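User: For a benchmark we're assembling, each entry needs the component sequences followed by a predicted structure for the full assembly. Here are entry 17's components. Please fill in the structure.
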Amino acid sequence: MTTRKLEIVVGAFVAIAIAALLLLALKVANTGVTGSDETYKLLAKFDNIGGLKVRSPVKVGGVVVGRVSDIQLDPESFQPVVTIEINASYSNFPETSSLAILTSGLLGEQYLGLQAGFVDETVTILKNGDYVENTKGAIVLEELIGQFLFNRGNS
Amino acid sequence: MLNKLQQLGAATIGTVQGLGRASLMLFGALWGRPRPVKSWPLYVKQFYVVGVLSLLIILVSGLFIGMVLALQGYTVLAKFGAEQMLGPLVALSLLRELGPVVTALLFAGRAGSALTAEIGLMKATEQLSSMEMMAVDPLRRIIAPRFWAGLICMPLLALIFNAVGILGGHLVGVDWLGVDGGGYWSAMQANVDFYDDVVNGIIKSTVFAFVVTVIALHKGFDAIPTSEGISQATTQTVVTASLAVLGFDFILTAVMFGG
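Assistant: Structure for entry 17:
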């Protein structure tokens, strides 16, 4: 076979491989559809974060608007401080909004549910670096069972 | 007792000498000013022999492994009512593990053994020596193109294997067993990370490509120049390369996904 024919065949081979990589990147791993990379940070203190992890999603009504970027323990109050990065296109949450740690399904992953609050003249919009004051921690199954047994013992 | 000790020592020295000769061969092949224009046809030929001709076995085995994964995974997942997780199951097992490893094993059998036999026969028929007589460096002319062809082609083949396998999983899972097609892709997208899974798979298969190609070239270059020696070298290539791939796979998996 001449070099030209070989080159054509090898070129086709490499093109197939690049197509495979594109399929894996776009269709399987879904890199290109994460939206704009511009984000702003919000912080929140919780009593208990349960199984929340870095990169867990933040959802508003089921729509992913951001991700957990950092989890630290506050050295003074011993409360976990969760930093979340929210897509800059969703930048109008009022300071009355609340965050709760929820579980998807019975045994699924934990995520942060963001509930937008009311707006009036005295309420400001959350900016980069603000704390979300109204938070609800994760439900720990053992505590729930303990409470249930305790209540039954009382009645 | 002493005899055993001597055997152990001899085996160790033999292994180290083999590694040293392999490194020297690789160094000799890659050292020096590259001449891409002049040796371009040699490289194209090797890309064709090593890469394109391995395409068929990669496509067929990728398709069937994806289909079998979907079939096996479905029976277990259906028990828990978690058929939606079929996509991530197929994609993650292919991207992280089966794609790189099975491609490397097939590559060792299909292209590695051919490289060893070819170079071994060149040595037996004294083509390599006659090249040296004509002041052509056999390392630069024979080894280097084959090394680069192997190193570049195998990750590409692994990518094709992964893509075809995932499509095969779709074929069985969605078109035959009736898993929801949208769920297959969306659950996959939610669970597969480009850097953690796809890129790590590519890194894995690049390492395997290096290991398999160097072993195949070295066994051929070091073969005893008789018909028996060549047959031995070819067998050794497949066995050693497969074992090395599995060993490296364990180490790489422990480093990438273990922590």
